[in-house]
Design brief:
Shape: globular
Number of strands: 8
Order of helices and strands: HEHHHHEHHEHEHEHEHEHHHEHHHH
Helix content: 40-55%
Strand content: 5-15%
CATH architecture: Alpha-Beta Barrel
Bound molecules: zinc ion
Largest sheet: 8 strands, parallel
Structural class: alpha/beta
């Protein structure tokens, strides 16, 4: 049924339309979704290891954002202390995503930090997150799936160990592995063994590559050596058009992040939207899908991430309809579900579009 897409007779603004369209989210980190209030509660529960002004600084997004990795490390090292914390964070993330009509979310969690930093055994941690996934589906109607992510700042051995934990506790809700944290000096090839083990065990795979201005060859390594199913970020492919064309021909899906800190920090504000690689990627034939990454820390929502694709990067609604299909094609769902959602969501998109007050026009480069 698509009747819920048009609850009133009032016209839709672009923002309310993008709120209403059914969405998948494929690139979001659990520790980047923590509500400000919850962060303060976790700090109190842990005996207030962080000063109040430090927490405020975590939740302040300046014009040149320093990035969020220090916040994620504080959660592992100081704040997340029990499986119940992971349950709460997961339930709240999925509730927040569902409130923006995200129907299906694949989200990252780093087991290495939880086990070695927080001291929570893997089975207990995974169990709490999976319980929250079940409860969120019951309460909010959203389907959540977990991607166990390699901490690339840790050793290759730790990555192999992490994949062993996932294999030893297989369940349907944990569908694949990824890799994140700082890519500088930690190229994908360091983690070949962990990826080979994961693929052999039937897990899906993705990788952050070509982020932080790291070379496009990291994207190639992720695709050709790690043999990942999709790419997170991948922006520097625009530096090498021949390789971009190969990615386009292969139909690689790139999960992109309009609020990515690196480009906000390094491009001049007046050029940021114009020179951003996201703007160039579809023109090279690349298949992209917009995501929130670390929504509460980036001050973004799924609706706003989609809105930025129009307002900042100049895409039109035909482009967005294509991005929606890219998301469904990149999602690790079965083909029956994929086909059903493609039909239903395309109808919902078109119904909402017909009731838009003013259709945006594209502003290509
Ligand atoms: Zn990310």
């Amino acid at each position: 049924m698509t009747s819920s897409a048009a609850p009133t007779s009032a016209p839709y603004t672009l923002e309310s339309m993008l709120h209403a369209i059914p969405k998948v989210e494929l690139h979001c980190h659990l520790f980047g979704t923590v509500r400000h209030e919850t962060f303060k509660q976790l700090n109190l529960r842990a005996g207030a290891p962080l000063a109040a002004d430090e927490i405020e600084s975590f939740y302040t997004r300046g014009e040149k954002p320093v990035g969020v990795l220090r916040v994620l490390r504080a959660l592992d090292a100081q704040l997340v202390r029990g499986a119940g914390d992971l349950y709460q964070l997961t339930l709240e993330y999925l509730q927040d995503a569902a409130s923006h009509n995200v129907r299906y979310a694949e989200f990252f969690w780093n087991p290495t930090g939880t086990v070695h930093g927080s001291g929570i055994p893997y089975a207990m941690a995974q169990g709490a997150i999976v319980r929250a996934i079940h409860d969120a589906q019951q309460e909010f109607g959203i389907v959540g799936r977990l991607i166990a992510a390699i901490d690339r700042e840790a050793s290759a051995e730790a990555a192999v160990e992490m994949v062993e934990w996932v294999k030893a506790h297989r369940c349907d809700e944990v569908i694949g592995i990824g890799i994140d944290y700082r890519e500088n000096d930690r190229p994908p090839e360091l983690f070949t063994q962990a990826y080979a083990d994961a693929k052999k065990a039937g897990l899906k795979t993705t990788a952050h590559a070509g982020e932080f201005g790291m070379p496009w060859t990291n994207v190639r390594t992720a695709l050709d050596v790690l043999q990942v199913d999709r790419i997170d970020h991948g922006y520097t492919v625009v530096d090498q058009p021949d390789f971009a064309r190969q990615c386009a021909e292969r139909g690689v899906i790139f999960t992109v992040v309009p609020t990515n800190s690196y480009y906000l920090r390094t491009l001049p504000p007046e050029r940021w939207a114009l020179d951003h690689p996201i703007r160039k990627m579809p023109g090279l034939g690349l298949r992209i899908h917009p995501n929130t990454d670390d929504p509460t820390l980036h001050k973004v929502t799924p609706t706003k991430a989609w809105l930025m694709m129009v307002r900042d990067f100049g895409f039109n609604l035909d482009d967005l309809r294509g991005f929606m299909h890219n998301g469904l094609d990149g999602a690790w769902i079965d083909d029956t579900q994929r086909r059903a959602w493609r039909t239903q969501w395309s109808e919902a998109f078109d119904t909402l579009r017909a009731r838009l007050d003013t259709e945006p026009t594209s502003s290509p480069l």
